[in-house]
Amino acid sequence: MELEAEMWSFTHSIVDTAAGSAYIESKTHKILCVVSSPSEFSELLSSEEYQRHAKAHLNVVSPHSSQVKDALSSLIILEKYPKSVIEVKVQVISGDEDTALVYIINAVSLAVIDSGIEIRDTLIAVSAGFKDGKVIIGANQLVLGVLVNTDKVVLIRLEGVVDEQQAGMLIQACFDTAKHMFQMVKNSY
Q: Among 11, 39, 151, 174, which residue is least crowded by beta carbons within 10 Å?
């Protein structure tokens, strides 16, 4: 297993006016994420509508927003914030938005941790692919988002075709790298 590009570095708590924020930088991308504190819906038209909101609503403004929202729904304990909205805003400062998903997920996860919003686990995203028959971490063939303590996959995006054995190799490499990256994140908080 090899690294195609240097791993990402990050900083958190960089936006004073946000509940949580994170900045991630890699050789190819720079990503900023800001998370607001859960706040009550300002306008609910009826008591029936009010009752439907027994957990927080996520408002995600980001490239790949539907994938980010799905991953966050597995990360955040939304039931702890009934009748609330949590806003997540991501800006790709530099780099290709199409290949930014792994960095976006990691920036969002770190910003949520920074905000103090209750989470189930720590979410780390890793990408991997094959080059000359070797697994390369950082290649974008497979993007995997993992809740690292429970080994739960909350995001998977595969481009191209791989056989069952190759898929297993990519997934294992992503899990191993996510565990390693988790230690780096854990040590920073």
A: 151
Average pLDDT, the chain: 88
Domain count, the chain: 1
Which residue range is the domain that position 59 belongs to?
A: 2-188
Report long-range pairs for 170-173 (Cβ below 8 Å, ≥24 apart).
170/128, 170/129, 170/130, 170/135, 170/141, 170/142, 170/144, 171/142, 171/144, 173/1, 173/126, 173/128, 173/135, 173/137
Q: What is the pTM of this model?
A: 0.89
Query: Which CATH number do you get for residue 116?
Result: 3.30.230.70
Neighbours of 71 (CB within 10 A): 24
Structure tokens at 78: 């939304």
Answer whether residue 74 shows pLDDT above 60: yes
